[in-house]
Amino acid sequence: MRRSYQDIPGTTVFDAEQSRKGYHLNMFCMSLMKAEQRQRFKAGERVYLDEWPMSEDQKLAVIARDYNRLIALGGNIYFLAKIFATDGKSFQYAAALMTGMSQEEYARMMLAGGREPV
Amino acid sequence: MARITAGIACSHVPAIGVAMDLGKTQEPYWAPLFAGFEPSRRWMAANTPDVVFLVFNDHATAFSLDCIPTFAIGCAEQFAPADEGWGARPVPVVRGAPELAGHIAESVIEQDFDLTIVNRMDVDHGLTVPLSLMFGQPKEWPCRVIPFAVNVVQYPPPSGNRCHQLGKAIRRAVEEFDEDLNVQVWGTGGMSHQLQGPRAGLINQEFDARFLEGMVSDPEALARIPRERYLREAGSEGIELVMWLIMRGALEGPVREIRRFYHVPASNTAVGHLILEPKP
Q: d(Cα A38, Cα B54) in Å, to the nearest integer?
């Protein structure tokens, strides 16, 4: 079903449809809340991912750390945060990556008051 | 009888907790933010309540996609700080207020707000960062806390109007409670921010300024803001601001503004803060 908020630029609203598409992906992310699972994931990402009934696209996007793609495939940013936390990366790192800016450029934009609303 | 003595609005950016936990509050990046909370901590030291009713959202910590309650009230004796993927924050365990929480649950459900009751819940930065900002780094938190979790992760969250009305019901519930308690209601999260996609980093200072002013002078108008306007104007995560309206509903009527503070940026987010007291 078409939603009026789908035309907001650069934004994917995590609604019931996205949540359904991303259920297993997001639950995989949730598993990384436990230190021993994080270790197991880091020791062999593909093997760990194959334990989850995720689509091949979702698995490849996790391995590539392609967060925009993961969001399109039903990922929610608070769940995806478990992946970049496992990598020892910050929210600002991930945000910069999704905007296509370097982390330095992004941090400068934020210090200057953030992205202008459009 | 119990009474609501103040309402506090406060953003809950995780990086603020990290800065405190790692002793970085005096670094140039963070110093202006923490300086902004100094007067608030002094006010708090003189106005510490018995109980804080703390409205926050869980960020895929206690609630995964297995269960997504729209409104969940924590009725337990205590709540542990959660491991969010990088180890639990080194902050005290949160002591609950089970009797008052149970009473509020009952009263509010009887007023037609269908709450979920939670007796086990680890609490994430959404709850612990505002406690740290207002109380600093004590060995024990100086009061008891009723965690009240609102779904703002899966769209649609409750509307601003629903939140505002719920706040009014919470006030009625508190005032019925037969124990002499000072209760503060805190609304956390916000202000404008977007953490996802090519539009990440959005900040809308005009929206935020209008919202801060509206919290003081015209909450009814804020309660009419439709969900989609938050998404468009305050960013996809700015919709957390509906939680502030629960606090404002609980104050009902005119308020006295004790403190207003606004700072950009904390990591990806605009930080907003208010202390409001009900006008007698």
A: 31
